[in-house]
Amino acid sequence: MARNGFNNNLKVLAFDVFGTVVDWHGSVMREVSELNLNVEPAEFARRWRAGYAPAMARVASGELNWMKLDDLHEIILREVLEEFKIDSLSEAKIQHLNRCWHRLTPWPDSAEGLSLLKQDYIICTLSNGNIGLLTNMAKAGHLPWDCILSSEVFRHYKPHPQTYLGVARVFDVAPSEVMLVAAHNNDLAAARSCGLKTAYVERRFEFGVDQEKDVSPCEKNDVHAIDFIELANILTKSN
Fold it and tell me: What is the pTM of this model?
């Protein structure tokens, strides 16, 4: 649903990717299952993802040098393997597992919904994933991006303001002409504070079917949609 009074002067839709466009939990869980590590794959996947924000904070604080997300993922993975007392993986298998983030499966509506939205807007990623990761993911998942933007471009991870404002600079538009689409209200709040429009898309089972998310609407978001198909319908009607 759109908030009353929403005026659609949008030119660019920028999408968070992990959890919003692709099912990271289900994808990582499947790859962990295939390795027969004698761990609960669902919990392993969640634990790996839980290290994401603290690792980025270490970069932001200067404790770690700037690095692309592939390298941060590897640091977290090695910590999680140690935590779960897993020492049976060869170096080659560790590297292959770390690249599972390149192979994440899109949500069922993602490719179709993005194609619909692309008819009226520039659509791009705005992800902390690095460019190579996002490109490989798009190729495998048939995601029709016009442009791939990443924290790697801006040398800052979200929620740094330079990431959100950087989208407007890249396309030479006002921040109010950019909408961030995400399944995470903290990401949307940071974008909104920079003057972007915001759309919340429900991904109820982002953390697995056994950990359903609260997807209650936030009145501050301009749009709340079940998925990308509904988002396309809402934005078309508001034109």
Answer: 0.94
